[in-house]
From TrEMBL:
Bias-annotated ranges (Acidic residues): 293-311
UniProt-listed InterPro entries: MT_TRM10-typ, MT_TRM10-typ_sf, TRM10/TRM10A, tRNA_m1G_MeTrfase_euk
Skewed-composition ranges (Basic and acidic residues): 35-72
Ranges where the record places region Disordered: 1-72, 286-327
UniProt-recorded name of the protein: tRNA (guanine(9)-N(1))-methyltransferase
Classification lineage: Eukaryota, Viridiplantae, Streptophyta, Embryophyta, Tracheophyta
EC number: 2.1.1.221
Length: 327
């Protein structure tokens, strides 16, 4: 009898757990919007793949036609050798560009803008949120690596599940980036007076960037569960805070948040342009801007990352999830 009761109870629990969760009207809208975005993303990816395949097939046919049109075997061999030399030259150029990027990153340790991504919030995030943050970090590194004037990037509090997920990334051990298991307050204790935590809750507006300062970006993907947490943390540690002057240049529309990679890219863009307006318009997606400027700068070219040592992240937005609340 007890076995039968237990079986019936388990069946009832299964039935209860299988009942669909009732979503609010707002939640249904968000879910529908997300589903449409995912479908559009998948469609675009399939189209890109198809175009690449067609282009590859076209080039292959052109090459075969060139070979078949050769009047002699000697001419055919010369054509093949010429193609090999061209490929060798292209590979050599790519190797030079890779070395230049590496040298710029090494120099950034001494001359670049210091940017810390604070990974000390992992215990407040779910596995999927940690994964989202890892994707944003991938993009941060890729964008910095392409910069003509890259920053000096730090990952602090890099331990536990966060470290595990980062270590799974191909080539992560070769990243030219500071990786600290300690918190920034411990790792940079001798430079505490130069630490500046970037948080929208700060009353200090960041007008200029100081190369002597160390700017901290909160690595927190929390879907707005922990509002004001970074400001509270900075106050308790007795370090400076500041916020980006976004409201001075544009009005945000729907989502009032920026991802970690967006904040980092804005800082790097300002180092390059010395212009906040240009930096915001080139980084923040148009769908997040309530008002656009008729003289809006063109977006930066988003070429695919083909270098084997660079993260293969292709999208501007790694994961559209909250990481920095805006005013």
């Amino acid at each position: 009898m007890e076995g039968e009761k237990e079986t019936m109870q388990n069946g009832q629990n299964t039935l209860e757990n299988s009942q669909p969760t009732t979503l609010s009207k707002n939640a249904k809208k968000k879910l529908l919007k997300q589903q449409k975005w995912e479908a559009k993303k998948a469609e675009k990816k399939a189209q890109t793949k198809e175009q690449k395949q067609k282009e590859g097939e076209r080039k292959r046919k052109e090459w075969e036609e060139k070979l078949s049109s050769c009047a002699s075997e000697e001419e055919r061999l010369k054509l093949i050798e010429s193609r090999r030399e061209l490929r060798k030259e292209r590979m050599g150029k790519r190797a030079e560009e890779k070395e230049e990027k590496t040298q710029r990153l090494r120099k950034a340790k001494d001359f670049g803008l210091n940017i810390v991504i604070d990974l000390g919030f992992a215990d407040l995030m779910t596995d999927s949120e940690i994964h989202s943050l890892v994707q944003q970090i991938i993009y941060c590194y890729a964008v910095n690596r392409r910069c003509a004037s890259p920053g000096h990037l730090w990952l602090t509090g890099c331990s536990g599940e966060m470290e595990n997920q980062l270590q799974r990334l191909s080539g992560f051990d070769r990243w030219i980036i500071e990786k600290e298991s300690q918190s920034y307050i411990e790792a940079l204790q001798d430079q505490k007076e130069n630490l500046v935590y970037l948080t929208a809750d700060s009353e200090t507006v960041l007008d200029e960037l100081d190369l002597k300062k160390i700017y901290i970006v909160g690595g927190l993907v929390d879907r707005n569960r922990w509002k004001g947490l970074t400001m509270k943390k900075a106050n308790e540690q007795g370090i400076q805070t500041a916020k980006l002057p976004i409201s001075s240049y544009l009005k945000m529309s729907s989502s009032q948040v920026l991802t970690v990679n967006q904040v980092v890219e804005i800082l790097l863009k300002f180092v390059e342009t010395k212009d906040w307006k240009t930096s915001f318009f080139q980084v923040i997606p148009q769908r997040k801007r309530g008002e656009t400027d008729p003289e809006e700068p063109e977006g930066v070219d988003r070429e695919e990352l083909e270098d084997e040592d660079e993260p293969s992240e292709k999208k501007r937005q790694c994961d559209e999830v909250p990481s920095a609340q805006l005013n």
